Structure prediction request, 292 residues.
Amino acid sequence: MSDVNEREIKKLPTLRGKTVVNLFFEDSTRTRISFELAAKRLSADVINFAAKGSSVSKGESLKDTAQTLEAMGADAIVLRHGSSGSAHRLAHSGWVESAVINAGDGSHEHPTQALLDAMTIREALLENPVGSDLSGKRVLIVGDISHSRVARSNLILLKELGASVATCGPATLVPRSLEPAGGIFYSLDRAIDEFDPDVVLMLRIQAERMEASFFPTEREYSRVWGLNIDRMKRLRNDAIVLHPGPMNRGLEIDAASADSTRSRILNQVSNGVSIRMAVLFQLLSGEKEETR
Ligand code: CP
Prediction:
């Protein structure tokens, strides 16, 4: 799919006649637009549904909304929802026949984000002679792990691919229950020195999911856990920086780090289109299999 996205005519006829519905109950820029672009590049029809301005505001349930969209011919439903488990519920409840793709459910999972992150890491590894094997590579996930579906999906996928993953952040935002094999660090400086990461995945502080104060001040957070140019200089020469976006520039990452040559943040965005094309292709081009 990434080859298709390099061509002058970025289009395949594969999903002609299929309909993909983007069913978004939470705001999104990258995931919604990349799923739309991915479906269009595979020649599917796309319906974008945002809960704001729909009959959800009149109290219509997820079940009724999904069944209504399926009655109009949806073959796949791409669901972003604030409740953890919502995509699993829709996929396995028998409410709909359509393929269901999780585009982020609460603080639970964001599987296509983890896939595009892994693809971006592999691409970076291909630039050096050792190849694209993630086995033994050290990935440090930094920040608001507690509220992060991106962290949870990456912990599953990167472990599966053989990487060593560590988490780092304030004790209030790093759950001990996740127990990454690479360990838990409460200081970014210590994590850089002792874990020596090949990849630093910075996470957004998700203020909208916080009902209490998890760190003293933004200034303090940035001082202890923020990625800045001084910390970038202490990373190994070939280390790369990822962030799923949207970024709080000046809080978890400063502008110089976000815009540095070692930042692969825009590569993540580009790879998101290819990954989502692949996911739609897998689910809609042949026999339906187990959905997630
Ligand atoms: N990474 C991510 O999920 O971004 P959006 O919220 O913009 O989709």
Observations:
- The longest strand covers residues 99-105.
- The chain has ten helices and nine strands.
- The first helix runs from residue 30 to 41.
